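Researcher: Please predict.
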Amino acid sequence: MTGLALSALSLLVPDYDDALAFFVGGLGFDLIEDVDQGRKRWITVAAPGGGPKLVLARAEGAEQTAAIGAQGGGRVWLFLTTDDFARDAARLTAAGARFEEAPRHEPYGTVAVWRDPWGNRWDLIGPPV
């Protein structure tokens, strides 16, 4: 490897096991690591299609707890791409995601904003129609 690479992003969650149930059990992400470190765990998951890993970080203290679901400051800040928008929108919904809008067609693809169980805003982006 030459140079820098973005390898992971941290996502604050209230509970490790609930986050694993959503990402691994619901969305089919791969569990990469789950290492017990005493009072916390080092958990990384990855989307099966690739990209940076997510570090599932249990919030500690009032400041971190208040930031759950608000890490993007109210904006969409996480993006999932798919080769089959309808299939994965259904999978997200079944796992507990809430779509904020009907899919719309943009030059870069079919897109809709959704929220995970903790309120984080994501885009699901499929191929252009």
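Model: Residues 72-129 form a domain with the 2,3-Dihydroxybiphenyl 1,2-Dioxygenase; domain 1 fold (CATH 3.10.180.10).
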